[in-house]
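In response to reviewer comment 3 from the previous cycle, which asked for concrete evidence that the modeling workflow produces usable outputs, we include below a single protein chain processed end to end. The sequence was submitted unchanged, and the resulting C-alpha cells are shown without manual editing.
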Amino acid sequence: MSYYFTFNFPQNLNPCSVNDLLRQLLIPRKWRHFLRVERKVQINGKYYHFNQNVKPNDKVELWFNHVESKQHNYPASGKNPEVIYEDDSLLIINKPAGQKTHPNLMETDTALNDCATYLGFSPFIVHRLDMLTSGLLLVAKNPAVVPILNRELTAKIFHREYLAVINVNKPIAKRGTIELPIGQDPLDQRKRKITSNGLQSITHYQILRYLDNNTALIKLNLETGRTHQIRVHLAAIGCPIVGDPLYNSNCEKEQFLHLTAYQISLQRPFTLDKLKVKLPDEDIPLLQNKKDRLPNDNVNPKLS
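The workflow returned the following C-alpha cells.
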C-alpha cells in the first residue's frame, strides 16, 4: 500500500538540502533510499536531488511504497473513545482509569478496541498507559507514521507530562529529578522495584501545591518509559501516589489511582510542525476546584 504526505516548508526556517530535511523528519534510512531511487520526493512538483535545497514555502511531497507492519488487528468494542485530538495520521484519546491500553488474547474492551470502533479499522500502537492510569493516549492511524513516532520517543522529541496526587511521608524538594534503576520484582510479577541491575529510569517532578499537611499535587515528566516508572519512583522517595494499590501501603480499596497523563507534545509526523495537546481541566479528576486549574502554558517539557 502506498502512503502520501505533503506539507509546505516553514517560512521561519533556513533553506536546507533534501537529505537534511528527510533527516529532520526522522525518516528511516531505508525509506530515504527508496525515496531517492524511486524519485518519490518532489519539491514544487519536481524531483529534487538530495543535495538540492528546499526553501521556505516550497511544497514538499513524499510517497512511500515500502511500508511494512506486523501490527495486530484489534476487533471493535462497539464503544467510542473520548477523542481529544485527531488529524489525518494521529488520534489522541482520553483513556479512563481501569481500562487496559491494548488487549491480550480475546479481550475486546481495551482502549485500542474502542479506537477500532471509532476509526472503522485497527489503530497502530505507539505507547502505553498503565491500566490504572487515566489520560492522553496517542495512537497512529497508519503504519507509515509509527517508526517516525518511535524515533521521536527515542530522541526525546515526544514528551508526556503527568499529574499525580501524592502522600508526602517525608520532606522533599519542590522540584527535582529521580534517577533510580527499575527492574522486575522477583517476589511479585505484577510489580517493579528499584534494583541496581535494573534499567536506567529518569523522572523529573515539580510540586504544584500542597493540598493538606501530607498530600500534594505534583506534575511529572519522563525521560524514560519503564513500566510503573512514576509509581515506583515516587514510592521510592517516600511519596507514593494516593490510591496506588501496589506501591502505597495506605491505599484504601475505594480509592482510584491519582495519576493522569494530561499533556503530550511532539513533532507532527512528516511535517516540521510542533503539536501540543492538553487534556481539558474538567476531564482531569485531580483538579477538583478552580484554584487547581492549570494555564495552557504551565508545563515546561524539561523540568530538570
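The first strand starts at residue 3 and ends at 8. We consider this sufficient to address the reviewer's concern, and the full set will be provided in the supplementary archive.
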